[in-house]
Amino acid sequence: MHKPLAIFLMGPTASGKSALAMELVQHLPCDIISVDSALIYRGMDIGTAKPTADELRMAPHRLIDIRDPAESYSAAEFCTDALQEMAAITAAGRIPLLVGGTMLYYKALLEGLSPLPAADSDIRAELQREAEQMGWEHLHRQLTTIDPVAAARIHPNDPQRISRALEVYRISGQTLTTLTAQQGTELPYQVLQYAIAPQDRALLRQRIAERFDLMLQSGFETEVRCLFAREDLHLGLPSIRCVGYRQMWDYLSGELDYAEMRYRGIVATCQLAKRQMTWLRGWSHTVTWLETGSQMNLDIILRDVGSGYLTGYNR
Prior knowledge:
Structural class: alpha/beta
Number of domains: 2
Radius of gyration: 20 Å
CATH superfamily of the largest domain: P-loop containing nucleotide triphosphate hydrolases
Low-confidence stretches: none
Strand content: 5-15%
Mean pLDDT: 93
């Protein structure tokens, strides 16, 4: 009863989260915190659908442009940063509005972080050498033997997550599945959780394709060319593996023609949306579903927040 209020606005990519968030800040004393593992990178604006300069002037977003593309960023770092921003917003008498589609970040915030070991550069280098010699599919089969639950969840073509799961086992002697089942401290907020998505999957695919084409028209290729010219960036980095960026990188490398790059970029984005929806359908917390484009979405959230919650908040 005495916990401060926070709002989570989740959903797959291209579902309308940002547009609804911009509406909300016009009606509620909310400050936006980005929950997106791609928006953290500077110089990656078009391909991540980062808010425009006008939108940021109207509603500043926290936790965007906080890392160089050559740097990494973990769920633990996100939790630390997000909790600091939430505390500052609450102290100002306002409501934290967390918006984005990186479901792992939401889960870590709600349930606390599992006691996973810190990264070990020597073991990571060892795994990288094994992958170069035998391939990531071999390491994925190894993971299947050690931790079949994690292996079933991790795609054989996802080297970052395969490496991390094997690294955790080699450091601790315990599987990733076992350790992630051990939860930390719960989030000290009363959270209203919403998920927005179209009921028609075909509509989401259409929105994704239209948005990808708009990115191409808006200079996405030029943006990635600037990254491609940097000697310190490569496909082994999480930033460059972001959907759209990887496909454009392959095009600039001469591995794909333009049409194939566009096709694969759209397909990869649709696959990301599917994974996000899978997370949300299995969400163990109470969530209210909203329909993309519905005029009722704003009213639903305003109703749930209610006048009682607004006491003490600064507009």
